[in-house]
């Protein structure tokens, strides 16, 4: 009987060690991009990447839902490129005015989007918007491989 208990304990220990040694634990998360308090973060997989505003070390406010795969920023604007989880064939751009943004205020005052690439290009010429660069591989959002 003691031999059976020892075997069960060994198996349980192996399972626990194996589960804790994997790269994607229960609460795996990370930050792919940051500009001041703005960040693109993910939970469990990069396909959940979203734009948020960090209030402190433990809380943030969501701005643009997943799947955000590219971003850029300058002193006046934060721009992100997104493939919505519900429609990965679509690419949206969002432009956030840093001057107008109030984390506890009405987001609609500061955020323009979703807009098309053509609309982004037009706004970029008028307002000197930052260029966007990949922050996670687009393929994780349902995009084409490079």
Would you kindly provide a brief summary of this structure?
This is DUF3997 domain-containing protein. It comes from Luteimonas endophytica. 21% of the residues lie in helices and 36% in strands.
Total of DSSP H or I helical runs spanning 4+ residues: 2
Strand order of the largest sheet: 8-7-6-5-9
Summarize the amount of helix as a percent range: 10-25%
Radius of gyration in whole Å, from Cα?
20 Å
Distance, first to last CA: 58 Å
Strand content: 35-45%
Tally of domains: 1
**pLDDT under 50 segments (min length 5)?**
17-24
Question: How are helices and strands ordered from N to C?
Answer: HEEEEEEEEHE
Structural class estimated from helices and strands: alpha+beta
Q: What is the residue-averaged pLDDT?
A: 86
Major β-sheet, in short? 5 strands, antiparallel
The counted number of beta strands is 9
Name the shape in a single word.
Answer: elongated
Protein name: DUF3997 domain-containing protein
């Amino acid at each position: 009987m003691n031999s059976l208990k020892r075997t069960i304990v060994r198996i349980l220990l192996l399972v626990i060690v194996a589960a804790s040694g994997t790269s994607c634990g229960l609460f795996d998360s990370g930050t792919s991009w940051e500009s001041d308090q703005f960040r693109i973060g993910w939970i469990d997989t990069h396909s959940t990447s979203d734009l948020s505003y960090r209030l402190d070390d433990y809380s943030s406010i969501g701005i643009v839902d997943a799947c955000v795969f590219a971003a850029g920023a300058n002193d006046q604007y934060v721009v992100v490129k997104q493939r919505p989880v519900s429609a990965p064939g679509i690419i949206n751009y969002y432009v956030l005015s840093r001057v107008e943004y109030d984390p506890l205020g009405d987001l609609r005052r500061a955020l323009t989007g979703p807009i098309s690439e053509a609309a982004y290009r037009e706004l970029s010429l008028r307002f000197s918007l930052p260029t966007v660069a990949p922050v996670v591989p687009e393929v994780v959002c349902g995009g084409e491989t490079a």
